[in-house]
Amino acid sequence: MKKIRLYLTIFVFLLLLNCINSVGFQLKNISDEEDILNVKVWTKTFGGKSRDGCFSVQQTSDGGYILTGYYSEYGSGDFDLWLVKIDSNGNKLWDKVFGGEDWDYASDVKQTKDGGYIITGKTRMYRYPEDVWLIKTDENGNKEWDKAFDKGTYEYAFSVAQTNDGGYILTGNIFSWGYPVAHIASWLIKTDENGNKIWEKIYGGDGDCSGKCVIQTQDLGYAFIGSTTFYGAGIRDFWLVKTDENGNELWNKTYGGEKYDVGDYIQQTTDGGFIIVGETRSFGIQTSDIYLIKTDENGNEIWTKTFGGDNYEEAHSIQQTTDGGFIIVGETRSFGSGYFDFYLIKTDQNGNEEWSKTYGGCKFDQGWVVRQTSDGGYIFCGHTCSYGDGSDDMWIVKTDENGNIDDGNFEPDKPVTPIGPYQCIVGSDCSPS
To answer: pLDDT, tens digit, for every residue of 270-327?
Structure first.
């Protein structure tokens, strides 16, 4: 009888132990899941005591992110081109600074097929006033080659993409002084995989015809968005140009009203059409609003939307999301807590707003580019004067699929002492001094 009781006691003990281990294992899994969820949202600032900013971000093949913009703390010149690699949690892995003794900065970066990076922007390192600059690096940010392109005047590039043949397409502007007004033309440059120029094209009439963002299209031609004062109905209009694979113009379209309308970003959508975004002063509520336009494959307008309040809004980037809708980033002065805040808008496939969020402190915070991430959330970057160590810093924000950054543990970097005309007193409203 005693043996039976002993065996029964041992059996119950082992059963309880197994239950405890099972519960512990389940709790550990829950804890791990919470850890995974927590890393979906974070914010980071990078920079020194002076002025630094971000113009481009992309998720990389390893799950991390590549950032580029400008740096003015310890580089060779007043401003230098800055390339920053971070992991999936926003921790910096490495950074590289490129430039000479004067002004150099980057406007766009893309990961290339070999795992490296292609960067474009402008430089004064080779000739004054400025040249278009193209830099190719390996996966660790080490420069493999760089090229400068000039037309003997003032040139700068906004956008670059790797093409299906392994080369690159980039767009920018050629600025020349003239009387009574300056003249700006859009410039498209096609290179081989080593950055050697294959062809170039200049687009636009008299006045100001600028190119801002270029893509390779499904038919292997190209499309770019910008703005024009030469064509269109208003003071300035959105300007969409479609070319063949050799840069020969097939058609161009303008969009806008009687006032000032500027296109900033373009993407080809899954139906073969285009989505373009920028700002409008012809439509909307007040001074400037975000202007969203959907077209068919021939640039014919399907629908338009405006977003904004009773003050100033502008968008700089858009991407079609996996649900067929769109994500937009820019800045707002109508909403949020500061003089300007990051402004993130999610729409459905017809451009109807599903939600919007603002991010920032009480100073100037400007969102520049947004991308949907592999976990369904969003990453966007720009410049912040509200957080970080300097007058401007790179600010990178990673959200969940609903634009949330507060996981219950969110603490932004400390506010900085304001520099310039806008002052911030902790616990008070933000207003011009």
So the answer is: 999 999 999 999 897 768 999 999 999 999 999 999 999 988 899 999 999 999 999 9
Q: How far apart are CA 44 and CA 388, in angstroms?
A: 9
The pLDDT tens digits of the residues spanning 6-38 come to 444 433 333 333 332 332 322 222 233 334 444
Residue 155 phi, psi (nearest 5): -130, 150
Q: What is the DSSP string of 335-389?
A: SSSSSBEEEEEEE-TTS-EEEEEEE--SSBEEEEEEEE-TTS-EEEEEEESSBSS
Give dist(CA 11, CA 21) in Å, integer: 15
Distance CA 428, CA 425 (A): 6
- Tell me whether residue 44 is exposed, middle or buried, using C-beta atoms within 10 angstroms of its C-beta: 0 to 12, 13 to 18, 19 or more: buried
How many whole angstroms separate alpha carbon 39 and alpha carbon 327?
21
Q: How far apart are CA 398 and CA 58, in angstroms?
A: 12
What are the chain's domains? 44-432 (2.130.10.10)
Look at residues 293, 302, 360 and name the one whose alpha carbon lies nearest to residue 331: 360
